[in-house]
Amino acid sequence: MPAAQRLGWRAWMLRLPVEFAAAFWGAAMGALIAPVVGFTWGDWTTRDQAEAIAQERAGEAAAVALAPVCADRFRHGPDADVQMRALLRVDPWTRAGLVEKGGWATLPGPTNPARVAAVAKACAALLAPAGCAPRPGGTACAGDRTAMPGPAP
């Protein structure tokens, strides 16, 4: 084999035009930098991250879907008026705990504490939206005639 054919990659690169070497190194650096930038700032995700996000969103969707059942159980309880006034008296960030302790967020079937807490949070938000307080006449919020039984103001 002639010596010209046995040249190493360095000698081969030296024989190429200068423009090709610059393009080659630019492409190589771009191939290294693109994933770093994409995963750091570009919102790229791995399959495991995407599955975790999907599981979280599915849990949130299930909680939102089950919240009306919880609210219905709350509203049709034996002491719904008293419980609604108690719910509206506590701070908004503790309302989910009150719903969870009352057992309205616990549904039949296997109970997952995270699911029960998520349903309780969605249920409390459905029963007493932010800014609601006890009002004379039985309604929870101005213009809301379904939150608490009683005559309209």
In summary, what is this structure?
The protein contains six helices and no strands.
Task: List the main descriptive attributes of the protein structure presented here.
single chain; 153 residues; mainly alpha; 6 helices; 0% strand; disordered C terminus
Structure explained in plain terms:
The protein is an all-alpha fold and 153 residues long. Among the domains are: 9-40; 57-127, no CATH class. It is built from six helices and no strands. Helix 5 (95-102) packs across helix 6.
Please describe the topology of this protein.
Layout: H1 9-15, H2 18-40, H3 47-75, H4 80-89, H5 95-102, H6 113-127
Spans where pLDDT lies below 50 across 5 or more residues = 145-153
Mean pLDDT: 81
Structural class: mainly alpha
Roughly how many Å is the radius of gyration?
31 Å
Largest sheet: none
Strand proportion, as a percent range, falls in under 5%
Q: Based on DSSP secondary structure assignment, what is the total number of beta strands?
A: 0
Please count the helical segments.
6
SSE pattern, N- to C-terminal = HHHHHH
Percentage of residues assigned to helices = 55-70%
